Amino acid sequence: MAVSRFSQALLVLFCHVLYSSASFQPALVLDMAKILLDNYCFPENLVGMQEAIQQAINSGEILKISDRKTLASVLTAGVQGALNDPRLTVSFEPNFVPVMPPALPSLPTEQLIRLVRNSVKLEFLENNVGYLRIDRIIGEETAAKLGPLLRENIWTKVTHASSLIFDLRYSTAGELDGVPFIISYFSDPEPLIHIDTVFDRPSNTTKELWTMSSIMGERYGKRKDLIILTSKRTMGAAEAIAYTLKHLNRAIIVGERSAGGSVKVQKIRIGDSGFYITVPVARSVNPITGQSWEVSGVSPSVNINAKEAVANAKNLLAVRSAIPNAVQSVSDIIRQYYSFTDRVPALLQHLESTNFFSVISEEDLANKINYELQSVSEDPRLVIKLTQDHPVIIEEDFEPENIPNDPAFLTNLVDTVFKVRILTGNTGYLRFDKFGDVSVMAKLGEQIAQKIWEPLKDTENLIIDLRYNTGGSSASMGILLSFLQDPSQQFHFFTLYDRIQNTTTEFKTLSGLPGPPYGSKRGVYILTSYYTAGAGEEFAYLMQSLHRGTVIGEITSGTLMHSKSFQVEDTDIVITVPFINIIDNNGECWLGGGVVPDAIVLAEEAVDHTHEIIESGMKVVAFDEFDQNPCVSFCMRNVQINPIVHIS
């Protein structure tokens, strides 16, 4: 027969820990082994134990210890170390007299009533929060005997609470067969739930514990919040309740890790000696986790000093009471503003069916809603977050500025807003830091033609510097895009859908431009930086999408434009909702997140890098084009380049 790890450990213990003095009878060890074999709740760990001990005895190298208490300590260390079970202890107590406390059901009814009243406390706190403290879990038989009293004074009253703090911090005793009733009280009648499996080694029987289809009185049910308080003293049946309700996702545990007791422990005399061994004779296995609260205890959801548990539970319940209104508020905002109208029904249905059991703070709530919305919408612009700052409604002002019609003023305004130069190699340079309103651009049409496009019309290449462009009107992008296309061809640039106005606008090549168009034949290079945002990012994205320009510089800021931010009712949570979609000529909606340049370089080096590309006649290609073009790939083998830039 194979020798278990425990048997090997005992063999080493009995053979190599030697004391030169009077020896004890080998029968002590054999008797202890038999007790373990007949009673220890993990018999599978004892395979081969008797054979190993008998082998040690036959070898003549049996342990010799004169002091009995020392021997008990050595045996305890050996057994605990071998089985990794701190509940196994050996003691030398020649005068020990077992005392069996009377079973509760056998006590007179009056005494039972006093005991229950002394171990149960119920009161109602602010906002109709129930507080129930139970210091002893009574068993099924006792509960049946005191049924009317318990129903009228405890369980029926608790059902009227809006939420409940269930205090088990001082519960150190109880009976395991009382657990199913309490679990049932906090559950629905159907379906029945398998809550525990208990194996009893002396009888070699297994018992399954299930919720009950009918109980005395009304149930608290599974809809209302339940907080369970635990401490280092919480033990036994109370641990079984906390562990089960936690892993059924029915209760949030607040406080300290519980004691880690046992289902049932017996102190058994070893033969006729004065030695006793304490053995766990039964074990619990939770059907959900496959593990147990025994030894390790119940770990709290919110780990906090037991003295502070009640105050923390009150705060937690205040957070959780705000969840329904917060979710409804988020749903209403999405319904009214979200630009992807086809996704709204699925988002609202998903929010309605989401389980917020794990939420224990406003930050948790914000993260949970954000995660759920992202999983359905796949839209990074739709954001939920917790902020201590006062939320601001982010709106874009599309109203035209009050600009006088004075030609000199208009010319000076164009000179101030737009920077135009001719660089070396006859390369045009255009910088502006904001896209103006369409009506303003129309008013400045004559000056723009004279001061911008006339000087740039004969350049061989054009640099459009958006490194400091922070946004503006997206609608005015159509004007600039029209200047960069052949006016004889009608070209679709992008589509803008506005959820608030419920309008869809298509932007195509404009006819009758106020100045000479730059056309579609010459090279255009867009410079970006981490500060490039809003309409500046959108323009860079569209130039890539239209294959009209090369973007050089840094990844743009990823600023969420065309969005509104709202504070969620009675919380510090803010939801940011995009209300405009920009759809490119391929039918793809740009979801922000920053534009990745075709050539990534530091912003301050972008102009010089552009000149290098122009002068060498190099072409910057996208990664996928490079990978899919075997000719380009072959040619590149002998070309030394920046690893981020692909050249052909």
Helix and strand arrangement:
Blueprint: H1 5-16, H2 27-39, H3 49-58, H4 68-83, E1 89-92, H5 109-119, E2 120-125, E3 129-134, E4 136-137, H6 140-145, H7 147-158, E5 163-167, E6 173-174, H8 179-185, E7 194-200, E8 205-210, E9 226-230, H9 237-247, E10 252-255, E11 264-269, E12 275-285, E13 302-303, H10 309-321, H11 323-337, H12 344-353, H13 362-377, E14 383-386, H14 407-417, E15 419-423, E16 427-431, H15 438-443, H16 445-456, E17 461-465, H17 477-483, E18 492-498, E19 503-508, E20 523-528, H18 535-545, E21 550-553, E22 563-567, E23 573-578, E24 580-584, E25 599-600, H19 606-616, E26 620-621, H20 623-628, H21 630-636, E27 646-647
Parallel strand pairs: 3-5, 4-6, 5-9, 9-10, 10-13, 16-17, 17-20, 20-21, 21-25
Antiparallel strand pairs: 1-12, 2-3, 7-8, 7-12, 11-12, 14-23, 15-16, 18-19, 18-24, 22-23, 26-27
